[in-house]
Specification:
This protein has about 200 residues and is mostly helical. The protein has eight helices and no strands.
């Protein structure tokens, strides 16, 4: 009896409705794919276990976002792994996603071996992807800019690229005062208007 009811139910659904429902389901799964991959760690373990690989990919990303930066700077990608920022939990997946997109687009599985123009295309592609991936890429770009331009790990160094000298350094009274302030004073006069 239940088998007959099932057949009767499916026979009343038109082919068009079935395709529409399957299309909605497929779109929902595609949208949910990124969060599931992150939660389930559904990406190669190399990105979690190989620190050198992770560092190379993230440094390549950093030089893509800020081309003028020194790729060998000691604190360049430190913010990505800093537990004070939520991004640290997602950096391995982010490195995988950069490499995966580079391989899909240009046939090169190593993101750090792509040309700067190709890496820019990959990052732009991530910024236009599904909402979760867009959020991940946008966060990575902002975190990189904050880390680099604000000099958060080496405040004394500052950032020469934007003329930020870093923490305040006392340079003596000459740096704070004018050498000849008297020339800016008004002339003193008596009550009848004559100079004293």
């Amino acid at each position: 009896m239940s088998k007959f009811r099932r057949q009767a139910t499916w026979s009343t659904v038109s082919r068009r409705d079935a395709l529409r429902h399957l299309g909605v389901l497929a779109a929902g799964l595609a949208t949910a794919c990124t969060p599931l991959r992150i939660v389930l760690h559904d990406y190669p373990r190399d990105f979690e276990t190989d620190a050198a690989l992770l560092d190379r990919v993230l440094r390549a990303f950093a030089t893509t976002v800020i081309p003028e930066t020194d790729p060998d700077a000691p604190h360049l990608v430190r913010a990505f792994g800093d537990p004070a920022y939520p991004f640290a939990r997602y950096r391995s997946y982010f490195a995988y996603d950069l490499s995966h997109r580079g391989a899909a687009r240009f046939g090169e599985p190593a993101f750090d071996r792509l040309t700067p123009a190709q890496r820019t295309v990959v990052v732009a592609d991530g910024l236009r992807a599904d909402p979760t991936t867009r959020k991940l890429y946008t966060g990575a770009v902002f975190l990189m800019q904050l880390s680099y331009y604000a000099g958060i790990y080496d405040p004394a160094a500052g950032c020469a690229l934007i003329g930020f000298e870093g923490v305040y350094r006392f340079r003596g009274p000459e740096a704070l005062t004018h050498p000849d302030p008297e020339r800016f004073f008004a002339e003193t006069v008596t009550r009848d208007g004559n100079p004293t």
